[in-house]
Amino acid sequence: MSHVTIDSECIKNCSTCSETCFKTAMNHCLQMGGKHVEPDHFKLMLNCAKVCETSACLQLSGSHFSHHLCKVCAEICDACADSCERVGDMDECVAVCRKCAESCRKMAA
Amino acid sequence: MSHVTIDSECIKNCSTCSETCFKTAMNHCLQMGGKHVEPDHFKLMLNCAKVCETSACLQLSGSHFSHHLCKVCAEICDACADSCERVGDMDECVAVCRKCAESCRKMAA
Amino acid sequence: MSHVTIDSECIKNCSTCSETCFKTAMNHCLQMGGKHVEPDHFKLMLNCAKVCETSACLQLSGSHFSHHLCKVCAEICDACADSCERVGDMDECVAVCRKCAESCRKMAA
Amino acid sequence: MSHVTIDSECIKNCSTCSETCFKTAMNHCLQMGGKHVEPDHFKLMLNCAKVCETSACLQLSGSHFSHHLCKVCAEICDACADSCERVGDMDECVAVCRKCAESCRKMAA
């Protein structure tokens, strides 16, 4: 499918965001407890990781549906970044989510 | 998150569609060869399986983003059903994809 | 690969165990808090869900490596069942984990 | 779980191997056809990608079961590298599989 652009920068941002959100949830958040394991926040972290993984997967396949998934990915990454800012002490997650949201928004345009 | 509906019927349709597409691609399509492993068709089968799995995952979490993913899921399921119809001899895949597309479309509405 | 047995009962047990552990962690455990989100227990629930999903995936593919993964799957399912028993109030998880462990152990033999 | 070592090098090798095998299967192999889509070879590429992803996931969680999964991962990576060598023209896949197998073997020891 030569007419589908594979943007390795966006794939890398999705993979990094997926790993960072998952690792942070499973280690930092569970260790900290309190608002870090509040249901809405914690579920958002894991669901963001899952959507980023799936976005990377479709892009790696050169799928025509990458754009649709990148749109959802940009939205959940922004929501996750907002939630991490509210909880505080999660600067790395905020940064990778914002970066991933930005490149996914471009892909979805 | 009591205000998020968990529709176990749609989750079941997504899980069944994911397993059926994956199993059919990995066994039937690879055995048959020819148009069954034509890149666009084969990638669609695996990507459809992945998006259905992710849609089930978000619904199981009661995520607010389930609706967004169900929308993409309905589209890729319909595209996969169309492709399976063109290839032929894939009635089970067509049926589960159409059923999943229908329930995801209702969830996304 | 006609010489690889596809046991649809074990696949179903793995899929059910994966969904039940994930759904229970994301809803019941996060709502309850306390010992339900204690790091070792909560991580075990999610990792068990992941390994069960992967075990189902390899079995659906008719992979020669299914047996190896079923062995690991039986072990993590038993560990997850033990942890759920200690935490208490998680009877459904205990039951699906024990059932999955049993069928995986047979597959791995 | 302070007594579980998180080896970021092995996690990176697993993630890279997973992405490379998946991307190569979905693009190079499907484009080339012939022995590149022979069932045993193609399934091994996708199953190797899945096991590597799961190995990375458990290591990112600091799971006590990482060692068990790293053992399976080393075996499927070596099998995938062997298969890629037989098919030929897949040097990148061979290299990342060998590298991943080596670091997983150390983790499993």
Q: What features would you describe in this structure?
A:
4 copies of one chain form a homotetramer. Chain A has helices at residues 8-32, 39-60, 66-87, 91-108. Chain A is mainly alpha-helical and 109 residues long. Chain A has a single domain (8-108), classed as Substrate Binding Domain Of Dnak, Chain:A, Domain 2 (Up-down Bundle), CATH 1.20.1270.360. In chain A, helix 1 runs antiparallel to helix 4 (91-108) and helix 3 packs antiparallel against helix 4. Chain A starts with 7 loop residues before the first helix and ends with a helix. Chains in contact: A-B, A-C, A-D, B-C, B-D, C-D.
Global morphology of chain A: elongated
Tell me the number of helical segments of chain A per DSSP (H or I, 4 or more residues long).
Answer: 4
Unreliable stretches of chain A, pLDDT < 50, 5 or more residues? none
Quaternary assembly: homotetramer
Counting helices, strands and paired strands, the structural category of chain A is mainly alpha
Q: CATH class of chain A, anyone?
A: Mainly Alpha
Q: Would you report the number of β strands of chain A?
A: 0
Question: Which two chains share the most extensive interface?
Answer: A-B, 24 and 24 residues
CATH topology label of chain A: Substrate Binding Domain Of Dnak, Chain:A, Domain 2
Give helix and strand order of chain A, one letter per element, not per position. Answer: HHHH
Question: Can you name the CATH architecture of chain A?
Answer: Up-down Bundle
Q: What is the radius of gyration of chain A?
A: 14 Å
How much helix, percentage-wise, in residues of chain A?
over 70%
What kind of sheet is the major sheet of chain A?
A: none
Q: Roughly how many Å apart are the termini of chain A? A: 19 Å
Strand portion of chain A, in percent?
under 5%
How confident overall, as mean pLDDT of chain A?
A: 95
